[in-house]
Amino acid sequence: VDCDWSSDVCSSDLPLNIIPLGDHCAAAVVLRDLGLRKHSYPFDWYAHRNSGSGESVMEMNIELLFELLDSNGETNLIENICEKLLGDQINKNYDTYMDVWFPHETGTITETNEKYFRRFDRLYRDVTDSSNTTIFLIIVRNHVIPESLMERLCSKIMSYNENNGFILISGQEYNYNIPS
Questions:
Q1: Torsion angle defined by CA atoms of residues 57, 59, 62 and 64, in that order, rounded to the nearest 10 degrees
Q2: How would you class 74 by CB atoms within 10 Å of its CB: exposed for 0-12, middle for 13-18, buried for 19 or more?
Q3: SS (H, E, C) the chain
Q4: In sequence order, which residues have a C-beta less than 8 Å from that of residue 176 and are 6 or more positions away?
Q5: Of 8, 15, 30, 81, which one has the fewest beta carbons inside 10 Å?
């Protein structure tokens, strides 16, 4: 994946924001523990139910991000994304969208839907805000994100702000360059 992005982004005059894209809660935990977590985002606190076996929510997260960005921030479309993702998982119904697991959620369905709406809305606003430099942190354990999907992700994110970038931490080896 070939993206033009300055490796010296921290010297930019733009405010820096780091957004976790998954594939589990480790990215949000690391950012919180380092004092770098400014906001909650929709991909912070869930994982694939079988993530230890190599299953991942990464492709789903990226596709949901594309869907969100294509929504142009319209409220009803963000609500549809939340409904698709959350379904009945808060009631611990294991027949969930893409076998997603939300181990950290304890609120009611209404509270959780409202929380995820705010998170998706914030994600949309922060990705499309060209006055910030945004780093997208991806931590995957046993999964390789297809190169074509990373290329689409990079192109889409960079189209909003050429100062945006990615950090990928993976338990697998990648045979292509990741935008840094």
A1: -70
A2: exposed
A3: CCCCCCCCHHHCCCCEEEEEEECCCHHHHHHHHCCCCCCCCCCCCCEECCHHHCCCCHHHHHHHHHHHHHCCCCHHHHHHHHHHHHCCHHHCCCCCHHHEECCCCCCCHHHHHHHHHHHHHHHHHHHHCCCCEEEEEEEECCCCCCHHHHHHHHHHHHHHCCCCEEEEEECCCCCCCCCC
A4: 1, 147, 150
A5: 8
Please give the average pLDDT of every successive group of 10 residues along the chain, which has 180 residues.
44 74 85 90 79 68 90 87 71 58 76 88 91 86 85 91 85 73
- Alpha-carbon gap, residue 114 to 103, rounded angstroms: 18
Q: Is the dihedral of CA 10, 14, 19, 21 positive or negative?
A: negative
Residue type, 149: L
Enter the pTM of the model.
0.82
Closest by alpha carbon to 68, among 155, 144, 126?
Answer: 126
Give dist(CA 43, CA 24) in Å, integer: 8
From the list 42, 49, 58, the residue with the least C-alpha distance to 147 is 58
